[in-house]
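Hey, resending since the last one bounced:
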Amino acid sequence: MDYFAGLDVSLEKTHICVLDRDGAVMHEATAISSPEAISAALADTPPCKRVVFETGRMAPMLYHGLTELGVPVVCIESRQAYQALKTLATHKTDRNDARGLAQLARTGFFKPVHVKSLPAHAVRALIMARKKLVGQRVTLENQIRGLAVVFGARLPRGLSPAFVEQVLRMSDAIDGLSGAMRGLVAARDAVLGAIAAIDADMKRLVRASDACRRLMTIPGVGKLTELAFTAAIDDPSRFRRSRDIGAYLGLVPRRYQSGEVDYVGGISKVGDRRVRTLLYEAANVMLTRYKGELKLKDWALAIARRSTMRKARIALARRLAIIMHAMLRDGTTFQPA
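The structure tokens again:
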């Protein structure tokens, strides 16, 4: 007989429910949220054909850990699971959620998702840390500017060499302001040092990857864009067609159809927002700064002439994603013509 299990995962403990093929509860338990503890708890039950849990913060660690231990685990889309679990139980408890996930595992009514590798998550963490630090730098510089304006000083651009010098010069003559400015400048210098360290790590990653160097031959695509893209795709072979990348990254029009209503709106904006933003910026660089002859640029400019520049950037970003996936999958280089 086939058996199916559902795991309701929280930060400290995981509720486990095992059903037979008829839907009868065979075993329920609670284990620490670690691959070893969950695998040991499942070892006390008959071998399961499928073990299901939702996406979440702990999904990468649990998925790869349980897979290495031989557990047939499947990670499913949490939004779909949420809608299904609402119809299976009146009260939302961890026990009921585990039972509902086991029912989904038994019926097969779920959408499996690809769990990215741990190296891909490490690259994503590097990119997100850099984004957060850049935001902190901008916040500190704006705070310094705001304090200086109160005393009638207009500071130069934040990244210019004269910025710190002028900040300290104008604040030294004012009691109380000097300490505030020196503290903010020291924090800004620390953030800039952390950003420089992350940039150095990114440069080493790019130099070590042949695929990354090939992607950077595309005009407008820099190390940040190609690292974010390769981390988001992770395994190019999981996409049957390169043009599916547009939908995966939320760069295709959203459509709503019901009866006589058939509405096509803006892009869906699903998937990795950071990658979508970087691709849009790369498309903008290609259209506005790249001066060479490029058929891809001419194609996008033709769209801009009959529509808008914004739609041309989105269309070019989607086309760039398709080309970059094909280059990763086939190991080819960019051909401008």
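Residues 130 and 198 are 7 Å apart (CA to CA).

Sorry for the duplicate.
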